C-alpha cells in the first residue's frame, strides 16, 4: 500500500529525472539530432567544446561574471531587507509579503520582457534619469552595462533568500544582545560578532542555492539582451539552448556535452563552498566559530 501511495513520485523520478540524467550523459558521446540513430563519437563533442568552439569559452566567462555579480549582491540585499523587516510593527507582515512577490514573478518571461522595456533607451529608467539631467544610458546595447542590467533582474528576486534570513534572525537568542549591551557593544559590533555568526548556516544555504541558480540562468539573457551586445551576456544556458535548437540543427549530442560541462561547473562550485564552510559556518551544537 505504501508503494502505491508513493508510486506517482517514483514514476516521476524515474521518467522525468533519472532517465533524462543518464540519457544525456550517454548522448554526450554521440552525434545525435533526434531524427536519426545516435552515432558514437567518443570524446569528440567535449574536445570540440574546449578546442574549437570559441562561443563556449565566451559563454563560460559571461556566466562566471554573471554569477560573481549576482550572488554577493543578492545575498547582501536580502540580508539588509530582512534586518529591516525584523521588527515588531503594525502591518509589517504586509511589507514582508510585498518584498517576497518579486521571487514569485521575477523568473517569468513576462517580467523579463518588462525589464527589457524599462531599460531601453526610451524606457522608464532613462526617462527618470533625464529628470535629474543624467543619461540617456544604453543599458542593453553597451557591453559595460548589459551584464549589470540582467544581474539586477536576478538581484531583484531576493524574496526567497530574504525569508530565510528573516527566519534565521528571529532564532538568534536575545540574551546575547542583552549581554553585549551590558558590555557596551555597538550595533555594528553586534552584527559582526553575534548576528552574522549565528546566521551563517542560512548564509551558507542561500549561497549554494543562489550560485546554482545563477550558473544555470537562461531567461534573463535570452529575453532581455538576446545574449548581446557582442555576446557579452551570452550565458552558458543560452549556448546550451542554441546547441540543441539553434538553426534547426537539433545537435542533441553536442548540447548534452554542454549540459554536462554546466553540471560539472555547478558541482565544482558547490563542492568549493562546502569545503570552505568549515572555516566560516558556525553551528550552535559545535560550540565554536
From TrEMBL:
Keywords per UniProt: Cell membrane, Membrane, Transmembrane, Transmembrane helix, Transport
Principal localisation: membrane
Domain ABC transmembrane type-1, residue spans: 60-273
Subcellular localization(s) per the UniProt record: Cell membrane
CDD domains, alphabetized: TM_PBP2 (cd06261)
Pfam families per UniProt: BPD_transp_1
Domain of life where this protein originates: Bacteria
Bilayer-crossing regions: 6-29, 66-85, 97-115, 153-169, 190-209, 252-274
Family, per entry: Belongs to the binding-protein-dependent transport system permease family.
Protein's name in the database: Oligogalacturonide transport system permease protein
Organism of origin: Enterocloster citroniae
Top-level taxonomy: Bacteria, Bacillati, Bacillota, Clostridia, Lachnospirales
